[in-house]
Amino acid sequence: MSDFSEELKGPVTDDEVETSVLTGAGMHFPWLQTYVETVAIGGKRKKDFAQTTSACLSFVQEALLKHQWQQAAEYMYSYFQTLEDSDSYKRQAAPEISLQHALYLLHHGMLEDAKRNLSEAETWRHGENTSSRGILINLIQAYKGLLQYYTWSKKKMELSKLDKDDYAYNAVAQDVFNHSWKTSANISALIKIPGVWDPFVKSYVEMLEFYGDRDGAQEVLTNYAYDEKFPSNPNAHIYLYNFLKRQKAPRSKMISVLKILYQIVPSHKLMLEFHTLLRKSEKEEHHKLGLEVLFGVLDFAGCTKNITAWKYLAKYLKKTLMGNHLAWVQDEWNSRKNWWPSFHFSYFWAKSDWKEDTALACEKAFVAGLLLGKGCRYFRYILKQDHQILGKKIKRMKRSVKKYSIVNPRLSY
Amino acid sequence: MTVPQTLAFCYLSLLWQREAITLSDLLRFVEEDHIPYINAFQHFPEQMKLYGRDRGIFGIESWPDYEDIYKKTIEVGTFLDLPRFPDITEDCYLHPNILCMKYLMEVNLPDEMHNLTCHVVKMTGMGEVDFLTFDPIAKMAKTVKYDVQAVAIIVVVLKLLFLLDDNLEWSLSNLAEKHNEKNKKDKPWFDFRKWYQIMKKAFDEKKQKWEEARAKYLWKSEKPLYYSFVDKPVAYKKREMVVNLQKQFSTLVDSTATAGKKSPSSFQFNWTEEDTDRTCFHGHSLQGVLKEKGQSLLTKNSLYWLSTQKFCRCYCTHVTTYEESNFSLSYQFILNLFSFLLRIKTSLLHEEVSLVEKKLFEKKYSVTKKKSRSKKARRH
């Protein structure tokens, strides 16, 4: 007799629908579930209304996970009745729903609709004003501001095409100004709250710069980057640095900004600019830091083929060694001598680098020679290669390596 | 007077006229929106303004519950000092013989089982006129849950035939299958396993659709309810907001999807002989589970287990509790199926089954008090 326990499985328990983030254009409500479930029932029997609406919500999530947009929309249609719920907690979900819908519309290019929805959402004030609701309203305003920024920049482009003497110029200029005022009002409220608001900050700063309010822009950016309450965000420092570059700020200021970025993201491509700044500086500690930064950049796999980085390193190593700062080089090399040879200077790399980019191979070979001595495989391989243009350079390299390599017993302290 | 009480009053009138509608049917019609209940005030004339306390009365957020309405029918009947209701005789729809037939057909069980249900009705005295008729002014005013009782009788008969201990019913199915394969021309023996497979599939589908329909149910109507004139603009604003959002989303929904509303029907499942996809078991024979002994038929199964071995004697409202894990899976399935049909809680059905058994095995119960709690053999 066969076993029928599989047939007679008990009622399947409802697995908690995993609220995962969806990629691509679409709506996602990971927070709605928790938002709604935090209602304290307080011992009363859950009404059918509450029960069916939470069932509706789980159906929405299920449909979204399965990418059944139409079904999800059908359920959402019914879900909106929670907004008329006498229970105020559940009603607070309304602005969030509208915000998500607006984002969906944005994804699909329907900006006018999105703007309209957000304006309406802004007017839905009811229920207690808790702090989370405050942020939500600000977020709605900020997105509205962002949409207005978009219109503003479009109009700005129009403006730039018009001639100053054109009769339409003033009208458009005024229109543009109005938009910007609205935008600033909407966005400034949000960015005072700690958080990551990259797109908003960027657009806001662009607007401020356009109208010549450099101090305002600098204040916003400095706040965004340095205020401790805000989460650590490398982009903030990048924006600030770029702004200072545009304003041609003093070198020391730019160095201090980039120093923080160096600590957060040592592999960033801005590090090469940082190195240049340090090199040009007059302080010796900056020169030492410059060497550190270069080594730091090349520690990362993403930068191994960066010819600029290698070029800089080659030139700088030579300069440092000529300047009798062997100790600096040794400091940096000590922590790397165990793994850099196989990471950068293996025979395999020699062959593939030469095949791909001879200039890169040359620079790397020079560095290899300086650090590992003329006997290292990479250096020897490159020396053996015959090349019309680089031939002379390689010969010069050979001479420098002989003179300056740290492995060289002649150069010792 | 509240809306649930009004519904109870309607049921009383149906009972008085001995209409062919049980309480579970009535509540199901309410759930399916054939009877105005949730937003009944929508149908009121324009001149009637509802606010203040009306909101608490008419702003209903739950469907009517069987036990709740049942209690209220007794209360309302008693309050109105109604006399003894017209007799429920054997030719009435509400008589267990007829109701059992109806439910047997609905869950696709063989017609031959009807003989057994009538037998059980006779033995327990549940077909007596005095037992069935509602008499509010009697000392202990109570009315019978006709539908639940009929279904409970069917469950008891199933237990008598198949034991439902997750074992015997499948062995009997094996025998039936073997016999049916050899004798294709005869009336097929009822195969529990086949019935289970078909019924489970139909049940799961129906239940899924029901849950989806419930999730989509729109509780709030066009006309919002509000407490006072101060709240009126807020209520209307909320309504406007919802309509707005719904409009935004309705563009995403395929407008051709909505099917027409179905007319009310007493049957939720329909089985016909002509349908080749789904076997109809009405004509199947119970020969596989009965055996002849002289003039009478006996069940091949000679064992039985009681749903409740000890009834609760305290002042609480229930007589027994239903803890799913204590019972076999087949029993759980049967209870789930029938409770879904009637839209009642499984515990209520289980209670009723226990009460039927109590009447049937009365003597055994009085003996049980002294002896140990083991399976009892029963022959009839």
Automatic annotation (TrEMBL), chain A:
Stretches of the chain forming a coiled coil according to its record: none
An annotated GO BP: transcription by RNA polymerase I
Name this polypeptide is given: TATA-box binding protein associated factor, RNA polymerase I subunit A
TM segment ranges: none
GO CC aspect terms: RNA polymerase I transcription regulator complex
Superkingdom to which the source organism belongs: Eukaryota
InterPro entries the UniProt entry points to: SL1/TIF-IB_Component, TAF1A
